[in-house]
Amino acid sequence: MSANKSSKSPKVNKLRQFYTGLKNRFHTTHHEASKWLTEKGLDVDTLKSAGKGAITATTLAGAVISSKPVDAQMMDKILGINSEKKDEIAAQITLEEHDEIVNKMKSYVKNPPGHLENEDELYLEQQISDMLGFEVTAELDGHRLNHSIGIMGGEQHLMRFPTDTLNQHDAYQQAGIAPARGAFGWFTEGGELTQKAIQREKYYFAVQTLYLSDWNQNYKDLKPWYKYRKMVAINPADGIAAVGVVGDAGPAQWVGKQFGGSPEIIREGKIWSKEAKGRVILMFVDDPEDLVPLGVIDINDYKKQLAEGTKEA
Amino acid sequence: MRNVYYAPLVRWEIVEEIIFLVEPEDREEVQKLVIGSIDHVVMETVLLYLDKADHEEFLKRTHEAYHDQSLLDWVKSRAHGVEDAIRRAIRETKASIRALLE
């Protein structure tokens, strides 16, 4: 292992000794395996970096290291997609149709919490996908929440790492911070607060995974699937969509709300405006290549684009 | 960090908490030492539970694709009770490391 040994911390030094002890123990207790590895110029540490998986990991890491931040790269990609899609959208949706879709969404969110009828849901998935320029669906990979229509409550900030504090969050500090980590763990990985981790906490949803009928039986598979799963909340009353990730479980049923939103989602998505009153549509974003950036989208912008397109025509 | 075949058996949030027990400048090294330690105890445990005749095959597979979680299925199919033993070994290792760093 090529660990940096510059630290003079006695604690780190103890850990180094502990690790060396484990290495020596392995050579003693599994002499033959150790010999097999040595003959190939390997040990337990280098096994990992010698295989094909390591090459993939290095390649992925290399792709991330660039002069541009990850989010900026993602934004470039999505802008590329949207630019390509713009002409298609203009061809597919007229201004009148856009108004009709938005009006339908306004009407749908006044329904009791739950799902739409199958036909309405398919219609809505298609229309929202066309409008936003990426695939939106109520059911993804066979997974479906108990509600796609419901009320979204405001959540607090989440601790992104064990020593995180409210004053380290750059916006909406008045929302407070939850006293423990979210249901899906810390946002950091390997002690590093990446730009991606920051964005995920900023734009997170709380969803009621705990009330899924198969959660108790299948949570080992369901939890990793839902963790940071990209979703979009549509606030039709104000014409705003907010793309975020699943970052926590909740709210509890007795709260009477079906979804939760981070302070950024609630404020920037105007989820609790006088008109919206928390009523949203929440669906999955089918984005296997992670191209859709997190943040809010002004649906009215599309209306403006359509209006301009109509004028030109 | 999570690119290991036994990843589903680790509570990574605890690993993250351990890394945050030290100063920021030490975290990179501590992460490597923690994962290196877990790698060793998992390797020990798997070899202990696997039949000796399967050892070489297992080492070849880890060499080929240490990240591949189907390797864990392969191990489980050949060594009864290994999953719990790995979990236990990881848990004990994390507890020992935590005690050193707290």
Structure description:
The complex is a heterodimer of chains A (313) and B (102). Chain A is of the alpha+beta class and 313 residues long. Chain A folds into two domains: 10-64, no CATH class; 70-312, Barwin-like endoglucanases, CATH 2.40.40.10. Chain A is 45% helix and 15% strand. Chain A has eleven helices and ten strands. Chain A has helices at 10-29, 31-39, 44-50, 52-64, 70-92, 95-108, 118-132, 195-202, 215-226, 263-268, 299-312, and strands spanning 136-137, 139-140, 143-144, 149-154, 204-207, 230-235, 240-249, 259-261, 279-285, 295-298. In chain A, strands 4-8-5-7-6-9 form a six-stranded mixed β-barrel. Chain A has a two-stranded antiparallel sheet with strand order 2-3. In chain A, strand 2 and strand 3 form a beta hairpin. In chain A, helix 1 (10-29) packs across helix 2 (31-39). The radius of gyration of chain A is 24 Å and the shape is elongated. Chain B is an all-alpha fold and 102 residues long. Chain B is 69% helix and 0% strand. Chain B has helices spanning 12-19, 27-49, 55-64, 70-78, 82-101. The longest helix of chain B is centred in the middle third of the chain and has 23 residues, at 27-49. The interface between A and B is large, with 49 and 48 residues.
Protein topology:
The complex is a heterodimer of chains A (313) and B (102).
Chain A: H1 10-29, H2 31-39, H3 44-50, H4 52-64, H5 70-92, H6 95-108, H7 118-132, E1 136-137, E2 139-140, E3 143-144, E4 149-154, H8 195-202, E5 204-207, H9 215-226, E6 230-235, E7 240-249, E8 259-261, H10 263-268, E9 279-285, E10 295-298, H11 299-312
Parallel strand pairs in A: 4-8, 5-7
Antiparallel strand pairs in A: 1-9, 2-3, 4-9, 5-8, 6-7, 6-9, 7-10
Chain B: H1 12-19, H2 27-49, H3 55-64, H4 70-78, H5 82-101
Helix pairs in contact in B: 2-5
